[in-house]
Write the structure tokens for this entry.
Amino acid sequence: MPYPWGCVILLSLATGVVLSVSQSLANNILWWVVGCLSLIGLYWLPTWKAFAYGSILATYTMSIWPEMLDRLTTCPPVKSLLTVMLTYLVEIFFSVWTVAYNFVPGGVYTREHTDYLILCVMVCIGLALFSKRK
């Protein structure tokens, strides 16, 4: 039998797809704050409360996805691909850096601080959503 709470996540994702029709919602700063708060709740709250905030985060993620893709496709392909790849590599290296803090220089400053990474991700999402289009 499948895990029954997966249906809640699928409904949250479907709700985000339905909400993605409204472009003004994706560009709303209050909706971005809801996304930030849901990520904070997912990260710091225990068990079922974190699950509820994770469902909200799933809705937020799916609702902004078409807007982010639309913005990505209007940029030059080489510049976009290089920027995305560089950002991804920096995030992966930082994830390893927070775990292997004993073996990397400066690791004591990032020891078990994945919250720095998720803060950076949400700030980058905000910058992408609220920057002016060319």
